[in-house]
């Protein structure tokens, strides 16, 4: 075992260097640094499905971070559509990529939400409440847009 010890140190130091470079940090503090999201926005902010081909609106989430990269767009997010009362409409759908579709029974204005967790891993339950969009408040960044279905 003692003659393999220097090889093990070289491998461990190499792995630490790879982690430090992959995270964009020039110093290693014992924890892998994470980019912290500051805000999330959704575009278009207001959309009328009648103005889009086939009535399908493609929403895009953009995340703003505290350190480079400053903005990421499109940002992979959790997408949800809710009605004005906070319920989940049966006639309006949204894909994992933010594309909405107004079904035959959809009429009125709906809120489109995109959210991501602020911290990697399970929610830290800062306020122990989940919003109508399904995101844990205090633990997530949320962007909201408006969709009108004919």
Spell out the blueprint of helices and strands.
Blueprint: H1 5-22, E1 37-43, E2 46-48, E3 56-58, E4 60-65, E5 71-72, E6 78-82, E7 92-94, E8 99-102, E9 108-117, E10 140-149
Parallel strand pairs: 2-10
Antiparallel strand pairs: 1-4, 3-8, 4-5, 6-9, 7-8, 9-10
Protein traits:
150 residues; mainly beta; Immunoglobulin-like; 2 domains; four-stranded mixed sheet; three-stranded antiparallel sheet; 1 helix; 10 strands; 12% helix
The overall pLDDT, averaged over residues, is: 78
Approximately what portion of the residues adopt beta-strand conformation? Answer: 35-45%
The total of beta strands comes to 10
CATH level-1 class of the largest domain: Mainly Beta
Sheet with most strands: strand arrangement: 2-10-9-6
Terminal Cα span:
73 Å
Shape: globular
In short:
Helices cover 12% and strands 35% of the residues. The protein is mainly β and 150 residues long.
3D architecture notes:
This protein has one helix at 5-22, and strands spanning 37-43, 46-48, 56-58, 60-65, 71-72, 78-82, 92-94, 99-102, 108-117, 140-149. It has 150 residues and is mainly β. The protein has two domains: 1-33; 34-149, Immunoglobulin-like. The strands form three sheets. Strands 2-10-9-6 form a four-stranded mixed β-sheet, with no helix packed on it. The protein has a three-stranded antiparallel β-sheet with strand order 1-4-5, with no helix packed on it. Strand 7 and strand 8 form a beta hairpin. It is globular and about 45 Å long. The protein starts with a helix and ends with a strand.
């Amino acid at each position: 075992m003692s003659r393999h010890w220097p090889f093990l140190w070289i491998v461990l130091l190499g792995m630490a260097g790879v982690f430090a470079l992959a995270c964009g940090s020039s110093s290693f503090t014992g924890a892998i640094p994470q980019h912290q999201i500051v805000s999330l926005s959704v575009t278009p902010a207001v959309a009328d499905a009648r103005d889009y081909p086939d009535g399908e609106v493609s929403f895009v989430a953009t995340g703003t971070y505290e350190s480079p990269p400053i903005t990421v767009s499109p940002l992979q997010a959790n997408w949800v559509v809710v009605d004005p009362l906070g319920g989940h409409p049966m006639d309006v759908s949204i894909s994992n990529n933010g594309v909405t579709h107004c079904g035959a029974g959809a009429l009125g204005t709906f809120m489109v939400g995109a959210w991501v967790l602020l911290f990697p891993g399970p929610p830290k339950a800062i306020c122990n409440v989940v919003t109508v969009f399904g995101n844990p408040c205090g633990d997530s960044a949320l962007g909201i847009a408006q969709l009108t279905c004919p």
